[in-house]
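QA checklist item 7 of 12: single-chain prediction sanity check.
[x] sequence parsed
[x] length recorded as 129
[x] structure emitted
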Amino acid sequence: MAHHSRLAGFIIDCEGGSLAEAASFWSQALGLAILDPDEGGEDRYARLDGSPVGLHIEVQKVDHPSRVHLDIESDDIEAEAKRLIALGAKEIARPRNTRWIVLEAPTGQRFCVVRAREPLNADNATAHP
C-alpha cells in the first residue's frame, strides 16, 4: 500500500538554558511569532509560527549538543522509515512511545520521521509505493 511523506519543518535543538530565552531569540532571529511558549506543558517545546513558510518550526530543550534537525512527516512512519533505511539511513532511536523515529542519514545528519499533522495526499506530498 502506498504512503505519503513531505518535509514537515525544522526543530531547533537547544542544550541547556531557558526554553523561553531560546524561543525568544529564534522568534526574533527568524521573524516568527511564538505560537505556544510551552507546547505540551513540559518546558521542552516552544512552537514558532512557521505558517508563512508552510513549515512546523519548534525550539526544543535537549540533552545533547545543540543543532538544527529536520522532520519528515508521513501518514505511515514505519513505511517511511523503512524506505529511508533502504536508501542508506540508519535507525537511532524511538523516543516518546514511537510517536517519531530518529534516523541518521549516510552523511551523518540526524532527522526524525513523524506522524503527519494533517492528511497527506498526492496534492500536498510525495507518494511512495
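[x] summary fact logged: DSSP finds three helices and nine strands in the chain.
[ ] second reviewer sign-off
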